[in-house]
Amino acid sequence: MKQLIGKKEGEKSAGRFKRRMISGVLVLCPLVITLFILKIIFSALTAFVLPVLEGLPVLRELPDVVLLILSTFVALLMIYLVGMFTTHLIGLRLIQMGERLMMKLPIVRSVYSASKQVMDTFSNSTKAAFSATVLVSFPHPGARAIGFVTGTILDPDGRTLYRIFVATTPNPTSGFLLLLPKEEVAFTDISVEDGIKMIVSGGMLAPENYAVQNPPV
Q1: Most CB contacts within 10 A, which of 45, 105, 134, 163?
Q2: pLDDT at residue number 147
């Protein structure tokens, strides 16, 4: 009897330990991911400014921590000044001239064009970038993948096809472009914002249910 009770208590303790470990992982994972992304952003911001500050004789003797804080402040100030500069007509024209120059450089053109398109897409409101959240059969018949409608296109027969962007998890900036007829696209009542949350979270942030609705006219 005592052995049976001891066994049950051991199973309960193991169950509690497992639940607490899972809870801890669920709490810490978003925090770790956030800190990792912030570290990348912080490193990118200081990568260009820090060497310049370290080369100044006046600042060379400052502690590394002070230099890091100062370089971050200078980088943020530069970003703000660039943003303020582009809001004026002269600044906007100069930026456009610089972009035209970048687009003439063979290798730089490909990288800059792709990165700018991604930033333009996700800097606009999600409703402007994607008009609806849909379900499509992908990557094989029987499976269902979340997609976002980006527009329509006519095939050689004059049939309207939907342009569907199927994003990858957890990075929604990459994915697959599908051209599908209306009968192969299931429009849902899931908002674009909720659809993106599902992609980024790997399905952990998802509505409890959804409904299929008619495509917009």
Answers
A1: 134
A2: 93
| Phi, psi for 175 (deg, rounded to 5) | 170, -150
User: Across the 217 residues of the chain, what is the mean pLDDT of every consecutive 10-residue run?
Assistant: 58 73 74 74 72 71 75 80 76 77 75 65 57 91 90 91 89 85 92 85 84 80
According to DSSP, the residues that pair with 132 across neighbouring strands are 149
The secondary structure of residue 125, as a DSSP letter, is -
Dihedral over Cα of 8, 10, 12, 14: its sign: negative
What was the pLDDT predicted at 4?
53
Pairing of strands 175-181, 132-136: unpaired
Q: What is the CA radius of gyration of the chain?
A: 25
Given a contact cutoff of 8 angstroms between Cβ atoms, the answer to whether 102 and 88 are in contact is: no
Residues 6+ apart with CB under 8 A from 130: 148, 149, 150, 165, 192, 195
Residue 68 phi/psi, 5-degree rounding, is -65, -45
CA 179 to chain centre: 23
Model's pTM, two decimal places? 0.48
Q: Which residues contact 196 (CB under 8 A, 6 or more apart)?
A: 126, 167, 172
DSSP strand pairing (132-136 vs 145-154): antiparallel
Domain ranges of the chain: 126-213
Return the closest-CA partner of residue 147 out of 190, 115, 116. Answer: 190
Q: Are 140 and 151 in contact (CB under 8 A)?
A: no
Residue entry with tokens 């094989």: 140
